[in-house]
Prior knowledge:
Helix content: 40-55%
Structural class: alpha+beta
Low-confidence stretches: 1-21
Oligomer: single chain
Amino acid sequence: MVxxxxxxxxxxxxxxxxxxxxxxxxxxxxxxxxxxxxxLIHERLRLGIISALTATPVLSFTxxxxxxxxxxxxxxxxxxKLEEAGYIACHKSFDxxxxxxxxxxxxxxxxxxxxxxxxxxxxxxxxxxxxxxxGN
Length: 136
């Protein structure tokens, strides 16, 4: 059972009682609702792209492809989705006659990643508390 509390949800383990005044149990932890999870970042390859760009501010298409062990087409599709969302910036140029594509994490992308990490951390903390509760 889950009770809403100001944009967050209070996870209530089965068998626990709730206080009748606000519908929540003060002993259960708050967790962001699953529908607030950034589904754009949550996909494995897109999370890999954003994480790599957090560690290294500028990466070429080739570097990302090797790092993430993916194909040209797969990387192109996922990078485009992140670029359309404003999470990464793409710069295309030529090195002589060779095309060069570089990616950077934008401030919006960094903020989205931090929100995503906070959300996942809250889920992890709640899960740890619930699994360490006697009777679970």
